[in-house]
Amino acid sequence: MKKSWKIDRRHFLKGCGVALALPMLEIMGAENKSKAPVRFLSMFHPNGVTPGKWNVEGTGADYKFSEILSPLKSLKNDFTVLSNIDNTYSGDHVAMTSSFLTGKAVNQKGEFKSIDQHIADKIGQNTFLPSLELGTEPPRQGKTGVGPISWANTVSWRSSSQRLSPEINPRVAFDRMFRHISNPKEAQLLSTKRRSVLDLAMNDLKDLQKRASKQDKEKLNEYYSSVRAVEKSIDKSLNPPQKDWQSPMKPEFIRPAAGIPRNRDEHLKLMIDLMVLSFWTDTTRVGTLMTAHGFSRQNFPFLDGVKNDHHGMSHHKKKKELMDEYTIVSAWYTSQLAYLMERMKTIDDGNGSMLDNSVIFYGCGMKDGNGHNKSDLPLLLAGHGGGKLKPGTHLASPKKTPLPNLHLTLLELFGIDTPTINGVGTGKINGLLA
Predict the structure, then answer these.
(1) Less CB within 10 Å around the terminal CB: N or C of the chain?
(2) Where do the domains of the chain lie, and which CATH numbers do they carry?
(3) Which residues contact residue 434 at a Cβ distance below 8 angstroms, ignoring those fewer than 6 apart?
């Protein structure tokens, strides 16, 4: 007998100009939820780390955590520390950012494409967005000794002449994910009213809840609350509430660009939430998240003991006060990875959590900004890759293992078998895949 109450895995909640893909539900039927998709996310942080404060002691499962990695202690069984992997390019912040997912710098000869786009070509056809690129800092212009600073705007490249710039405006990113608008008049109307995508799709949601099981209703309520929370966070960050007191002294500050949250820490958290939401709704299965520009001069007024900008402290010249600041900032970035992983770990995918079914490639294209050190990059691989990864250890590869070897291993995980990546690479990383 045909069970008409079942819905397809690709079912959307629809309303005027919006469409929200749903999380995995019982009502989708066993044939639709046999196996969740494996997602790929690259989370990039700029300017390197304090080497002695990143490196762990020991190998295998019994390694000792370093100061910078300490925010990840409770998640030890969900990631692998990688060491002895070198960038194949010697350059500066700009060139070494461009090689993070490509294995070669932009100014090197030959065509290339970043691994996220290779993966998107393989698994991105079944989602609304083949890939999603998010960031927190606007593109920059100018030049360094190697080339244009704009090379460090992103780590994602469709080709050597086509970079995919990250979206840094959370509202624009949210609308791109969920407001599927077909004509300009409708877009203008939605922009004017600024109605919630959930409000616009409410009738469809109510109809679905009538047919849902108790467990599905709980999942739908959690999903609804998460989407609503992100919407409220965006509204609050872009339209802060009126304060009940104001200093008689007029502060001096440069007004942030329109539509960008004033607080950098809140901004990054919002972009992390949006990336998680994009995976949860199956809007995309491939993402890159630039925690900051590859040549970032970001300041950190919300971190105690940090006075200098990030790029400045990375050129510490071994001065203790600058190295201490550098360490604090590096640990803050790993705490953002911890937040991402913890969020993904709470989301049920039907067969494990979202973290169980994801691959997160975290790190930077240089080890230490002081001297632009390319050796032994600060890299982690988080998630379980749908059972294809063996997390929970420190994996020390042979010294001077080229970064493209890691790229080739990640491509293999997603079913892409190629002898080289962009003409570089000498093999695969042993011991990483299950």
Answers:
(1) N
(2) 24-168+287-413 (3.40.720), 171-241 (no CATH)
(3) 385, 387, 388, 389, 390
Cα distances (Å, whole numbers) of residue 307 to 9, 135, 331, 414: 50, 23, 16, 42
Q: What angle do CA 49, 53, 56 make, to 5 degrees?
A: 110
pLDDT in tens, the chain (434 residues): 344 446 555 555 555 455 566 666 666 655 544 578 999 999 999 999 998 999 999 999 999 999 999 999 999 999 999 999 999 877 788 888 989 999 987 777 778 899 999 999 999 988 888 999 999 998 877 777 667 788 889 999 998 888 899 999 888 888 787 765 444 455 445 544 555 655 655 666 676 777 777 777 777 777 767 777 667 666 655 554 443 323 233 333 332 333 678 788 999 998 999 899 888 878 899 999 999 999 899 999 999 999 999 999 999 999 999 999 999 999 999 999 999 999 999 988 878 899 999 999 999 999 999 989 999 999 999 999 999 999 999 999 999 999 999 999 999 999 999 998 888 888 999 999 98
d(CA 276, CA 212): 24
**Which strands form 132-134's sheet, in the order they lie side by side?**
132-134, 286-290, 39-44, 358-363, 379-382, 79-86, 394-402
Between the alpha carbon of residue 85 and those of residues 90, 100, 168, the distances in Å are 14, 12, 30
Radius of gyration of the chain, Cα coordinates, nearest whole angstrom: 22
Q: Report helix, strand or coil for 81.
A: strand
| Rounded Cα gap, residues 172 and 416, in angstroms | 32
Strand ranges, E, within 37-127: 39-44, 79-86
* Residue 392 and residue 63 in contact, taking contact as beta carbons nearer than 8 Å: no
